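user: can you give me the structure for this one chain? tokens are fine.
assistant: on it. calling the predictor now.
[tool input]
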Amino acid sequence: MLIKYATSEDAAIINEIMQVAFSEYKNPPSSALKETTAEVKNALERGEHSLIGFDQDIPVAMVRFKLTNKELYFYRLSVLPTYQRKGLAKQLLKELESYARNHGVTQLVCKVRMTASKNILLYQSIGYEMFEKVTVGKANGVEISVVHMKKQIQLGKVRGIYI
């Protein structure tokens, strides 16, 4: 898989992958399903980042993220259903770790629905730990249990200098 750093011009691709991948979260519906291409483009123009994974020339996976001086928070990790369980999500996550290291950040953080056990297991399989469970209230009155997960990473060391 080729991974590309997205720009606001990629908002339609990002939104399309997200919509298809998140369609399994209909009960209760994910807020991702309500996002529009214009909202994604606006977020990217305001400093949000995204990666897109390609199989040949076909966009098949993406992740959105924000960087602070303390952590890289990622969300909406999406892989098209026909490409799931092939290691693409792990490849995106490895690229996020590299991005974080290059920016001096040692912690990656995400939130996962408690009912999305396959996602929790994916993150745990590559070193993420649960650190907080919360209940999130949605606009329609439905409550969703969510777990916060994090992974600590080491900064690289080259010739005695941490990078």
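assistant: here you go. The CA atoms of residues 24 and 116 lie 10 Å apart. The domain at 2-162 is CATH 3.40.630.30 (Aminopeptidase).
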